[in-house]
Amino acid sequence: LILVDRYFPSSKLCSCCGYKNIGLELNDREWTCPKCQTHHHRDINASKNVEREGKRILRENNITIISNNDTAVGTTVNAFGEDVRLPLGDQFSMNYESIAL
Q: For the chain, which end, N or C, has fewer CB atoms within 10 Å of the first or last residue's CB respectively?
């Protein structure tokens, strides 16, 4: 879990060229970048920018992500060493039975 500043302009930044659309309003769900002409859906564009900013924070702090396909359940530790636990309703049990295909 990486925390991105709540005032990071994730929706207003073009995820392609970095242009900041200062005129974007909360009710604007889609917009086209006047610099590179890329058409954006507000939430998809914001998610790309948040991912990029999170990776920048990791690089800035010399943190390496080791990717695997494991699913963490229960208490885990994030990149900055803080305990993170999903709310009880969000946890689930996994069994590892073989499935014949």
A: C
- Stretch (H or E) spanning 31: strand 30-32
Cα-flanking dihedrals φ and ψ of residue 80, to 5°?
-100, 10
Burial of 37 (0-12, 13-18, 19+ CB in 10 A): exposed
Residue 69 contacts residue 90 (beta carbons within 8 Å): no
Q: pTM higher than 0.70, yes or no?
A: no
Both tokens of 67, joined, read: 């990717």
The CA distances from residue 85 to 15, 49, 61, 73, 75, in Å, are 31, 25, 23, 8, 5
- Decide if 42 contacts 13 (C-beta within 8 A): no
Q: Give start and end residues of each alpha helix (H) in the chain.
A: 42-60
